[in-house]
Amino acid sequence: MNDTSPDRTGPERAEPRPPGADRTERELRDALQALAGGVLPDPDAYRTARGEWLRRERRRRLVLAVLVAVVFALATLIGLWVLNQAPSDPGVIFSGDGAAAADGPSLPRLLP
Q1: Are the C-beta atoms of residues 48 and 42 closer than 8 Å to each other?
Q2: pLDDT confidence tier of residue 8, bands split at 50, 70 and 90
Q3: Is 63 helix (H, G, I), strand (E, B) or coil?
Q4: Residue whose C-alpha is closest to residue 64's, from 72, 76, 52
Q5: Transmembrane residues, as ranges (predicted)?
Q6: Segment 87-91 mean pLDDT
Q7: Mean of pLDDT values over 45-49
Q8: CB count, 10 Å around CB of 17?
C-alpha cells in the first residue's frame, strides 16, 4: 500500500484508523476507476468546442469592427459640425499693408 497520500503524515497518525479502512479505500478506488473507465468522450467534442470558439471569435471581431466604425462616424460628424459652426464672414487675418513681414533684406538663394 502506498503511504504517500497527502492526508497521511507518516507512520505515526494523529488518530487511529478504523478496522477495514484500507479495504474500504481499495474498494472505493476500484469502483471509481471502473466508473471512470466507462466514461467515453464524445467523438465530436473537439470539433464542437472549436466551432463554438470560432463563432465567438467572429462575433467579437464583428462587434469590434462595428464599434470602430461608429466611433469613426461620430468623430467625423462632430468634426463637420464644429467646422460648420465657424463664422461665414471672413475674419481679419492680415491687417498690414501687404508689405513683407521682415524689415531687412531676405536671405540670398542658392542657384542650382
Answers
A1: yes
A2: low
A3: helix
A4: 72
A5: 62-83
A6: 70
A7: 92
A8: 11
Task: Give kind and range of the element (H or E) at residue 68.
Answer: helix 45-84
Is 22:1 a contact under the CB 8 Å cutoff? yes
Q: What is the pTM of this model?
A: 0.44
CA distance linking residue 22 with residue 28, whole number of Å: 10
Supply the mean pLDDT for the chain: 81
- Record the cell numbers describing residue 74, joined without a space: 461620430
C-alpha cell at 52: 463554438
DSSP 32-57: HHHHHHT----TTHHHHHHHHHHHHH
Q: CB under 8 Å, gap of 24 or more: what pairs does 53-56 form? A: none
